[in-house]
């Protein structure tokens, strides 16, 4: 296997057949064998039935996006064959249930047909059909030339809490799936997943999705209170937080709705702890009133917004970038809206941690935007590290302060914060207020207070805002501009393109106007790529800069861009030029 | 020790002369002096309405939030610092209109909060519209032909939703109101006081005279631990038939008493460092 080569395995099944856990085990098997992975999961908004697919992409090099083709397709049902028969790569195989009547007539003739009696093997272990995904996992491990010992290790870890029996049954059927390949389809075995020689030198990697990395980032940042109402695609943030709350001594609370979620978190923060909430667009619509309340009362708060396609209920389990302008403009009136957007799970981890410090420093809500692809697609990274992170609570004190004024006017707009119970008196007031916090409608006071709050945005721009990141050559024929989960697709596409670079934007507000203008001053052709109908990032750029975008590539079908599509788009532009 | 002057702010109440809010304000201050509530041990969360202005007239740390959202803010405060006495000042519109859902759930979870409802049976700050507690047929700016909706019963709703201390008081009887506020605060769990609060400007029916005429206190031998009886009495209403006092009281653990993370001390006093999270990260390798 060459360094840049990617092997893509797609598993397709009905919801409930364990596609996700099988995909994750295969990913971990790859990681432990010294490879990088990117898992993409796609499924409809159904619990049982419906078509679920997961693509595991494995490479010796970093892999950051899904692929349009598959080298191995594992079909646990007919739908998988019907929907994906046109996605086979040149040298590929289909693993499928040989005992059922799966019709493979549409599969191209060059594809190796590896029929396996999956349910028979699963049933022989004394257990039910539930284990067919593990049989398939054993089989694909064999086809890839993977190591059964590592797979058994993973099975023991994954099912350990379900008891010895279950572990044994899974290990048994995995082995039989594996053997079925070695005994019947020996010539189709590929040497991809052989634990690489350098595996012992390979820095330990982890496989995380953005929901997990946000939760881990929050825990590492000293999160003390989270109120999150379930909603796709961020529900797994709350699952991770709920599970670990006793161990780390913070509270996760499921509130009655998002109105309550944000207000509870605001109350907790006012009382002195690090607090967060998370939601998707629909929940953020409800939270927009609390968003401004935190701004007005100058209460630190971290809000995670995981986008999915709207409006209304939209496509609950798919991805989109259509909430950007809503978030930048949510709530009545002006207040410092600090809005960041992560491009992958690692950025989500880092920006979550930074968001907690920013919230404390500027005493205002920080929104971190992610999207379904980031939330639920898994990528491998060197063990996420927070050893260098310093919890900084900003101007915060629990001591008695003489002549204390919560909203004292200061050059940077940031006042000393204390908490109820400290002995200090103040009013955290949603009405316009004076420096103590008493309601006040004077024109002069109002003017000063508005300026005080908005100054924080200016200071944040000077002290904390980061420039967009440039990937690829310094100067190029075509410059791609994008944000969010498109990052991974662009990085992958760059590997197959010459003379193209990519500018990735993380700071939405304050906006890096000068930096972006400078970076793009020599750009010859700017291709803006977004997953929404109106080009919301392009609008933001028009509003803040003099940059002229040459062309926009937009999609709003909920699907993730493949690197191949970006390469096609670039070639298309070149052929027209 | 809290002295009445400690609670003084530069702002004198802006409520109309004769407003029941003045009585609630005084009674609360009296209770604070009696019990020693101060900026070291207490916090107030208020809603939006005439009632919410109270934060400006009492030097006690407070959060004045959004219309309808006082309860979620207060539950957030209480969960992270259960050593604080947390008082919620809310209106019948704030608590039962815009914030109705929060009310049910705060009761259900039995958060250890003291909730004071300024019940003037209408929206006063917006100059007199109907509220969820307005009587059927009641004429207001928004119901000039008479209110077509039935009011709901806040006491019964609290009891069936799971609140563990449910009382009604009349603002005009300040000693008694003070006593009930103190008892409500001493109770561990969600304590609700529906305070009949005459609005002298917009409510010409529920006046001080009307309440003086028609209220009475539950009998000395009344047993507030009997839920069924409490519900029966909660539905008693009308001429000469408005009971006051503690309707219902039950000893269930409060929400905050059930959270293992805060058994030893409030969350706000815990360290933030999480070096041990490294172990958790290894789960993902
Ligand atoms: C979201 C929102 N909707 C409407 C209002 C306008 N508003 C302010 S107070 C109020 C009603 C207050 O009634 P109540 O809670 O009974 O308080 P009272 O003034 O009677 O004390 C309304 C509708 C608001 N501030 N916010």
From TrEMBL, chain B:
It comes from the Bacteria. Transmembrane segments: none annotated. Residues 48-195 form the Thiamine pyrophosphate enzyme TPP-binding domain. Keywords: Iron, Iron-sulfur, Magnesium, Metal-binding, Oxidoreductase, Thiamine pyrophosphate. It holds the Pfam family TPP_enzyme_C. Residues 199-263 form the Pyruvate ferredoxin oxidoreductase beta subunit C-terminal domain. This is 2-oxoacid ferredoxin oxidoreductase. It comes from candidate division WWE3 bacterium.
């Amino acid at each position: 296997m060459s360094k840049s080569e990617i092997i893509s395995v797609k598993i397709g099944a009905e919801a409930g057949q364990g596609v996700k856990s099988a995909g994750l085990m295969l990913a971990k098997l790859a990681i432990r064998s010294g490879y990088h992975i990117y898992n993409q999961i796609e499924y409809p908004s159904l619990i049982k039935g419906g078509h679920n697919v997961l693509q595991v992409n494995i490479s010796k090099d970093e892999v950051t996006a899904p692929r349009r083709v598959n080298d191995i397709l594992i079909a646990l049902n007919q739908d998988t064959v019907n929907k994906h028969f046109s996605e086979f790569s040149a040298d590929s195989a289909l693993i499928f249930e040989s005992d059922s009547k799966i019709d493979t007539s549409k599969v191209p003739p060059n594809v190796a047909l590896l029929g396996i009696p999956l349910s028979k093997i699963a049933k022989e272990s004394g257990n039910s059909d539930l284990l067919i995904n593990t049989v398939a996992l054993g089989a694909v491990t064999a086809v890839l030339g993977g190591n059964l010992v590592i797979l058994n290790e993973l099975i023991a870890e994954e099912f350990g809490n379900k008891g010895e029996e279950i572990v044994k049954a899974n290990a048994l059927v995995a082995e039989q799936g594996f053997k079925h390949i070695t005994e019947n389809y020996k010539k189709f075995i590929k040497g991809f997943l052989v634990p690489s020689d350098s595996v012992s030198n390979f820095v330990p990697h982890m496989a995380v999705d953005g929901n997990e990395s946000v939760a881990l980032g929050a825990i590492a940042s000293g999160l003390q209170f989270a109120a999150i109402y379930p909603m796709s695609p961020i529900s797994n943030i709350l699952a991770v937080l709920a599970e670990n709350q006793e161990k780390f001594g913070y509270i996760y609370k499921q509130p009655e709705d998002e109105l309550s979620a944000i207000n509870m978190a605001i109350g907790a923060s006012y009382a002195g702890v690090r607090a967060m909430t998370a939601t998707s667009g629909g929940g953020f619509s409800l939270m927009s009133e609390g968003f401004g309340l935190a701004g007005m009362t100058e209460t630190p708060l971290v809000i995670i917004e995981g986008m999915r396609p709207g409006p209304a209920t939209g496509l609950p389990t798919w991805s989109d970038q259509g909430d950007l302008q809503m978030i930048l403009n949510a709530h009545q009136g002006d207040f410092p809206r600090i809005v960041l957007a992560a491009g992958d799970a690692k950025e989500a981890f880092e920006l979550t941690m930074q968001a907690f410090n920013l919230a404390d420093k500027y005493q205002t809500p920080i929104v971190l935007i992610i999207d379904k692809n980031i939330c639920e697609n898994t990528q491998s990274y060197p063990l996420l590290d927070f050893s260098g992170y310093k919890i900084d609570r900003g101007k915060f004190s629990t001591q008695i302060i003489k002549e204390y004024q919560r909203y004292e006017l200061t050059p940077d707009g940031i006042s000393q914060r204390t908490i109820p119970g400290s002995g200090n008196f103040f009013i955290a007031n949603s009405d316009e207020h004076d420096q103590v916090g008493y309601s006040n409608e004077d024109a002069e006071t109002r003017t000063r207070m508005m300026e005080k709050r908005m100054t924080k945005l200016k200071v944040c721009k000077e002290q904390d805002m980061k420039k967009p990141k440039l990937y690829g050559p310094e100067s190029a024929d075509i410059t791609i501009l994008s944000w969010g989960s498109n990052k991974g697709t662009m990085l992958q596409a760059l590997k197959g393109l010459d003379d193209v670079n990519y500018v990735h934007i993380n700071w939405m507000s304050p906006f890096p106007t000068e930096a972006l203008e400078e970076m793009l001053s020599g750009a010859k052709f700017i291709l803006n790529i977004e997953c929404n109908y109106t080009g919301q990032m392009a609008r933001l750029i028009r509003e803040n800069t003099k940059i002229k975008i040459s062309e926009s590539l937009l999609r709003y079908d909920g699907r993730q861009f493949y690197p191949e599509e970006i390469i096609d788009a670039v070639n298309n532009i070149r052929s027209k030029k | 020790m809290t002295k009445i002057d400690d609670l003084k702010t530069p702002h004198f109440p802006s409520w109309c002369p004769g407003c029941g809010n003045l009585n609630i304000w005084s009674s609360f201050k009296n209770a604070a002096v009696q019990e020693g509530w101060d900026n070291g041990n207490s916090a107030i969360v208020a809603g939006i309405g005439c009632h919410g202005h109270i934060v400006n007239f009492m030097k006690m740390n407070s959060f004045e939030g959004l219309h309808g959202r006082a309860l979620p803010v207060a539950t957030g405060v209480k969960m992270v610092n259960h050593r604080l006495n947390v008082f919620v000042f809310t209106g019948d519109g704030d608590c039962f209109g815009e914030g109705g859902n929060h009310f049910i759930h705060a009761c259900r979870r039995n958060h250890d909060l003291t909730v004071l409802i300024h019940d003037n049976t209408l929206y006063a700050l917006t100059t007199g519209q109907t509220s969820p507690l307005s009587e059927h047929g009641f004429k207001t700016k928004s119901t000039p032909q008479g209110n077509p909706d039935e009011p709901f019963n806040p006491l019964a709703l609290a009891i069936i939703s799971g609140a563990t201390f449910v009382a009604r008081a009349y603002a005009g009887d300040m000693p008694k109101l003070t006593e009930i506020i103190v008892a409500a605060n001493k109770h561990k769990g969600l304590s609700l006081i529906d305070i009949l609060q005459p609005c002298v400007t917009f409510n010409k029916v529920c006046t001080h005279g009307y309440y003086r005429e028609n209220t009475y206190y539950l009998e000395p031998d009344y047993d507030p631990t009997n839920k069924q009886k409490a519900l029966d009495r909660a539905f008693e209403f009308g001429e000469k038939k408005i009971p006051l006092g503690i309707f219902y009281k039950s000893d269930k653990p409060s929400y905050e008493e059930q959270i293992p993370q805060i058994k030893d001390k409030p969350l706000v006093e815990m360290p933030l460092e999480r070096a041990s999270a490294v172990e958790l990260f290894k789960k993902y390798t």
